[in-house]
Amino acid sequence: MTLTVTGLGLTRGSRQLFAGLSLQVEAGEALVLRGANGSGKTSLLRVLAGLTGADVGELRWNGEKWTVLCAGQRATALYLGHTDALKDELTAAENLAEALAFDGVTLPPHEISSALDEAGLAGRHQLATRRLSQGQKRRIGLARLKLSRKPLWLLDEPTNALDAEGVKLFSGVVESHLKRGGLACIATHLSLAINAPIHEMSLGDAA
């Protein structure tokens, strides 16, 4: 599996976020995006996820060209934004089940509970999400990653609000994904302890 980006360019208002951007990520590899706030990391991930169209350039997955919101892109890429995108009135288990259904995955309750336990939410499955801390909400996203079947992960500041134990857990989840032949593009300010090929790309500082 290969993600190839060629000549990508994107402008927002009068600001050019990036131009002539090219990259390639292979199975088992992670690309870590660095840069100041506003430098275009989120915008790039949204382009890769098919949620935003670039001004110019091309995306290809295993040689197949992707267009905005094409079926192949939706089936391949899992995008987790820097906000939690959870419903406060639902429980942790309900939010996870709903997110998995959006990904096309239906699992029995015991598998959802097991994933939440492994993500550090034992005893909190049935709590309304509004009663969870920001770090605990992030752990619902970790459980989603553990159960994901999509090969390409696009993760925007996934360690925000996580404590050291949570960051270690996240790193392990990503490492397992890469060892299974998955790919990941991660915007983060942290250095991740992942035993797999990691490449870094710095996007220009915001003007």
Task: Provide key terms for this protein.
single chain; 207 residues; alpha/beta; four-stranded antiparallel β-sheet; 6 helices; 27% strand
Low-confidence stretches: none
Shape summary: globular
Helix/sheet category: alpha/beta
Percent helix: 25-40%
Explain how this protein is built.
The chain is of the alpha/beta class and 207 residues long. It has six helices and nine strands. Strands 6-7-8-3-9 form a five-stranded parallel sheet, sandwiched between helices. Strands 2-1-4-5 form a four-stranded antiparallel sheet, covered by helices on one side. Strand 1 (2-12) and strand 2 form a beta hairpin. Helix 3 (92-102) packs across helix 5. The longest helix is centred in the last third of the chain and has 16 residues, at 164-179. The termini are far apart.
Briefly say what this structure is:
The protein has six helices and nine strands; from the N terminus they run βββαββαβαααβαββ.
Element layout with pairings:
Elements lengths: L1 E11 L2 E12 L3 E5 L6 H9 L6 E6 L2 E3 L4 H6 E4 L11 H11 L6 H10 L15 H14 L4 E5 L7 H16 L3 E5 L10 E5 L5
Parallel strand pairs: 3-8, 3-9, 6-7, 7-8
Antiparallel strand pairs: 1-2, 1-4, 4-5
